């Protein structure tokens, strides 16, 4: 976690409720950050357009922008995919320089965020089962940071289909199972008051960040490739988990 992520996550929890600067400072204190760090992070997030101030000294998440869209992506999973017809999206990155590491990481992360894996040197691929037109795919990849030097194409067939193990479905299922177990334990511990309220708040924010990241990084592969039991179980827990966490955090911030 960082001061920026604390602010973004707490404002996400608050929803339409604007939080004051002292409330954001209090959020940082709960997560172990100093008020000065929270003020700097607030200023930078406002400059970047990720948060807005509806009234002086109050803050909310900006409703537009890549970050907020990506954070809520997991809630739209059913709308994001379509039946797979056996076709592929391929990204060739042989003209993208790897010497500038920050730019390469941004480029690579953009492809990962849409489920592309590197099947060979400078050869990224994914099944074309996302509910996007080709132009929409290009637009989203560009917004996420894919290099303009990439060559992306829609292939109806491949001479050598990539091994489905490249998408690490087993490891992801293990992760979803572990996250679901931790969420269930945290909800139970909250009810039993086994730890202090501040400790529980910290656990909710950290665990929620991990769960949302894991769900948003799911490549959304064709259903015939993987058993989605662990994914579905984690998703079924999220509404109660979010509601419980929101109640605790608003309580800590003095909001009834």
Secondary structure elements and pairings:
Elements: H1 3-14, E1 19-20, H2 21-31, H3 35-47, E2 51-52, E3 58-61, H4 66-71, H5 77-80, E4 88-92, H6 101-113, E5 117-120, E6 123-127, H7 134-144, E7 151-155, H8 169-192, H9 197-216, H10 229-252
Antiparallel strand pairs: 1-3, 2-3, 4-6, 4-7, 5-6
Helix pairs in contact: 1-2, 2-3, 6-7, 8-9, 8-10, 9-10
InterPro entries: WH-like_DNA-bd_sf (IPR036388)
Organism: Kineobactrum sediminis
Protein name: PaaX family transcriptional regulator
Overview of the structural elements:
- The strands form two sheets. A four-stranded antiparallel beta sheet has the order 5-6-4-7, with no helix packed on it. The protein has a three-stranded antiparallel beta sheet with strand order 1-3-2.
- It is of the alpha+beta class.
- It contains ten helices and seven strands.
- The protein folds into three domains: 3-64, Arc Repressor Mutant, subunit A; 80-164; 168-253, no CATH class.
């Amino acid at each position: 976690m960082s001061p920026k992520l604390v602010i973004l996550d707490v404002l996400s929890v608050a929803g339409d409720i604007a939080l004051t600067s002292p409330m954001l400072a209090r959020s940082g204190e709960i997560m172990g950050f100093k008020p000065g760090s929270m003020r700097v992070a607030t200023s930078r997030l406002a400059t970047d357009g990720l948060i807005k101030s509806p009234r002086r000294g109050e803050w909310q998440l900006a409703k537009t922008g890549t970050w907020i869209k990506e954070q809520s992506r997991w809630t739209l999973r059913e709308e994001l995919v379509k039946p797979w017809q056996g076709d592929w999206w391929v990204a060739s990155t042989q003209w993208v320089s790897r010497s500038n590491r920050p730019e390469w990481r941004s480029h690579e992360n953009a492809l990962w965020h849409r489920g592309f894996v590197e099947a060979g040197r400078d050869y990224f691929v994914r099944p074309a089962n996302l509910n996007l037109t080709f132009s929409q795919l290009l637009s989203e990849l560009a917004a996420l940071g894919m290099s303009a030097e990439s060559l992306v194409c829609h292939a109806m067939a491949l001479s050598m289909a990539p091994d489905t193990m490249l998408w690490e479905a087993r490891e992801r299922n293990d992760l979803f199972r572990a996250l679901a177990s931790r969420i269930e334990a945290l909800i139970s511990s909250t009810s039993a008051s086994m730890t202090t309220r501040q400790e529980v708040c910290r656990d909710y924010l950290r665990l929620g960040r991990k769960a949302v990241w894991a769900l948003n990084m799911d490549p959304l592969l064709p259903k015939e490739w993987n058993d989605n039991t662990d994914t579905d179980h984690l998703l079924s827990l999220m509404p109660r988990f979010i509601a419980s966490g929101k109640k605790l955090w608003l309580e800590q911030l003095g909001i009834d």
